[in-house]
Each structure stands twice: as C-alpha cells, then as structure tokens.
Write a structure and sequence with these properties.
Length: 463
C-alpha cells in the first residue's frame, strides 16, 4: 500500500520531512519552498521529485497535482518563545494617529499566517491525511482553536502529538515539537500514541513507556516541563532510551587550545567554560574522559548545565554551540549553560550554530552553546536543540592533577556535518550553500526519524 501513497512536502526546506516520508515507503511527488537554496539542496538529494520555487502566500493550489498526503512545516519563528522575546502583534491605530503600522508586527503576522496555507490546499485537494510540524508554542497562537475548528469543518478529525526528537532513534538531540495529524473522517484513525522503550528499575525490565501529563487538563507542552514518561505496569517515572551527543561529534577534528587563540573569547563564554570545568571534571562515565560538555552561547530558554549523558540541545539557525574539553557542549543561546556529551544535544535552530565543543587537557570534552543564556552539555547526552545559526562549540582539556585553567582547554564550534548528524540526517545527505546557509537549513528542518514514525502510522491507517 505504501507504494501507492504519494506525498506533497510543503515548506520542504532541506528535506527532513521528505527523508522521513521516503523511509516510511511513501513517494514524495512534489516539494515546495520559497528559498532557492533549500530547493537546491532538496533537488540535489531528490532529483526525481517535482520542485516548485514559489511564495506559498501567493501560490494557487489549482496549479499543482494532488497527492494522498500533505506534510507541511509552516514558519515557526514568529510562534516560538525560545528567542526570548515577546510575541509581537499588530495593534489597531486610532482614527487620528499619524503613525504607520509596525513593520515588525506585520512581518510576524505574515509569518504566523503560513499556518493557514496547508488548510487552503487541503480544501482544494482533499488530501486523505495531513502531517504538520511546528514549535510547541504554536498552541499559544490566538487563532489556534479557530484553526483547529477549520480543519474539522473540512471533514477532518485531528490529533496533536507532543514529542521530543531524542526518543525517535537515532536522533542525539533534545528537540520538542508539536506534530498535528489530520485524516478524513471516513478513514480509520491512525494509532499515534508514541511509546518509547525504557528500562523500569522497579520492574527490572524494559517496557514501552507511556506519556503522562503533569496537568491532565493541559495536554500540551515539553518533555519534563509539562509531561513525563511512566512505566505502564507500576507507574514509576522512567527515562526512555536516547542517543548521546557524543554520537554526533567528529573526534578526529582538532580542538585548538583557548590560550593560543588570536581572538580571545568573550568574558561570558570564558565564565561558562569555567562553570563547565567545575561541574564536569572527574564526573564523566565515559572511560578516559573527564566530562565533556556542550555550551550554548545564545539561547535564553535552554537549560543551564546538562551532563554528557544527554542529547544535544535544540538546533536553531544560529552558529552558537561550542565543544569544550574535558569535553562538554556550550550552548551560546541561552544562559551559556554547559551540557555533558553523554546526553542529547540541545535544540538545533535555524538562526545559527549555537553549540561549541570545549575540550580540556587529557581528552575530557563537553559542548558549549553560544548567545545570551547559553548552556554547557556533556557529550554523553543529546545535543542541545539545533537552530538555524551555528551556536555549538566543543571544549576539551588534558588530564592534570592540578586545577585546570580555561586557557588550557580546547574549544571549537560544531561543524555543519556534526549538526547534520545531530539532526539525524543520513551521513551521505548533501546540504548545499555556505556554512551559514547549511546551518540555517538544518535548524529549520524536521528530524527525519520523527516523520518516519508518524508517516508509518498514517500509511497503516490508510491500508
């Protein structure tokens, strides 16, 4: 049946949704985006797909072929609160006010209005199912309930799934997103409960963990903040298995000594590295490592210091994460909090590379994320969320009996290839453009394993 399933990828970007859909067995017939560089990347990897470079605000759905399923990733930057700024709305002008409308507010409203575009296309094409991805904060969009009702008026049933990418393997990144699934009322309801495998210490066995909301009347939000996973047998809180940030790092690349840099690091960055040294030295569970961590130097909402047993923080579009040695990741976006490389990366965003790797002497490593309230993360954890800016650096250091000085640590930003690995794109996948453009494409992308899981569930319901 999956061979007969055709897909339109709207706001296709670099092709994360397309990659996941094809892994699920679907045929992606049409990919649409407004950015020439993203279309170039998508066409390089999927030349058999029909590509359209167009402004979807202006595109007429009647000009494009119909498919079975629509997948879409409307613009998220005007919805997210992660940038540390309040949402800007247009205010009505008084009758005698000479001021012109706020151009920033107008731009943000146009961005948020991209949420209506998939609905316009569904009205004309009558897709059998729709999968839409956006940030969790889209729930706070004032017309959100009206938007949901509009889908129901088109004879669709709907369900929202709130999921962190680190629990769809092999994604070594903590990336909370909302996934909206709609299907024609005449079709079977897809099974959309995601139950990641976890070990329950009380039961002494691996189980399929169930999502439990801390406030049952508020069923939206992020992992750990608004929901947890529990054992279905004994109701104990459990942590599902995940890939650590260390899996995304190319350890063959050198991490230059901080004291040898021609351009000194900013004072805040140096302080965050010192915080990471204090937290992660002699705490790593990796053999021969003294707790590497990630440092995010830009993102205000990223958690401060996370061990390397965790994923990367969310990747944005900014180049803001550094790798510090004894390795940890430094997130340059939020409060410069270090993250151990044993855990997942923080979220990778479209605004740049915010993760750096800090490597103190004798091969201890961690990641650091750049910008504003950055964070440090150990490499055993997931990579902090990837954004559209380069913001992750690697910090390292050599083992010494005496106290470790910051200038003796190694430090470098994560490369686009490492960010690509944190987003769980295939190693052979080609991202075109400059370093800045590559990071932006990756930070805007959907992690392919999540789309694969959801697409498989939807295809099964159409069989």
């Amino acid at each position: 049946m999956s061979q007969d399933i055709t897909v339109t990828d709207m706001f296709c970007g670099a092709g994360g949704s397309t990659t996941g859909a094809k892994l699920a067995g679907a045929d992606v017939r049409l990919a649409i985006n407004h950015w020439r560089r993203a279309i170039e990347t998508h066409n390089t990897n999927y030349p058999e797909t029909l590509h359209a470079l167009t402004d979807l605000h202006m595109a007429n759905p009647r000009r494009f072929p119909s498919t079975t399923i629509l997948v879409a990733s409307p613009e998220c930057t005007a919805h997210t609160l992660a940038k540390g700024q309040k949402r800007v709305d247009q205010q009505q002008l008084g009758l005698w006010e000479p001021e012109e409308p706020d151009p920033k507010a107008e731009a943000e409203e146009r961005s948020r209005c991209t949420m209506w575009t998939p609905l316009d296309w569904a009205e004309y094409h009558g897709y059998q199912a729709i999968i839409l991805e956006n940030v969790v904060d889209v729930h706070l969009w004032r017309p959100f309930q009206s938007w949901l009702q509009a889908w129901k008026s088109l004879d669709y049933d709907v369900e929202m799934i709130y999921l962190n990418s680190m629990f769809t393997h092999p994604t070594p990144q903590s990336r909370d997103r909302m996934y909206f699934v709609a299907w024609k009322r005449k079709n079977r309801r897809p099974h959309l409960a995601i139950t990641p495998r976890a070990h329950c210490p009380s039961c002494g066995r691996d189980i399929d963990a169930v999502q439990v909301w801390k406030r049952p009347n508020r069923r939206y939000g992020k992992y750990r903040q608004q929901y947890v996973y529990r054992c279905p047998l004994c109701a104990r809180d459990v942590t599902p298995y995940y890939y650590a940030a260390a899996n995304a790092i190319d350890w063959s690349l050198p991490t230059p000594r901080i004291g040898d840099r021609k351009k000194p690091l900013r004072e805040k960055t140096v302080q965050r590295i010192a915080d990471g040294l204090q937290k992660f030295t002699h705490t790593s569970r990796l053999s021969g490592a003294v707790s590497p961590f990630l440092v995010n130097l830009n993102h205000p909402s990223v958690r401060p210091i996370v061990l390397t047993e965790q994923p990367c923080a969310t990747q944005t579009g900014y180049d803001a994460t550094g790798l510090v040695s004894p390795p940890f990741l430094l997130d340059h976006l939020g409060e410069y909090r270090p993250r151990s490389i044993d855990g997942p990366c923080s979220t990778i965003c479209a605004s740049g590379n915010h993760h750096s790797l800090v490597v103190p002497p004798e091969r201890s490593h961690w990641l650091m994320t750049y910008y504003r309230h950055g964070q440090l993360a150990p490499i055993e954890g997931a990579v902090p969320t990837v954004t559209t800016l380069a913001r992750h650096a690697l910090v390292t250091y050599e083992e010494h009996k005496k106290a470790i000085a910051v200038e003796d640590c190694g430090f470098r930003m994560l490369t686009p290839k490492e960010i690509q690995a944190a987003m769980a794109f295939p190693e052979e996948y080609v991202i075109t453009g400059t370093r800045r453009e590559q990071v932006k494409q990756l930070g805007n992308a959907v992690t392919p394993p999540v789309m694969k899981v959801l697409m498989e569930r939807v295809i099964a319901s159409l069989a």
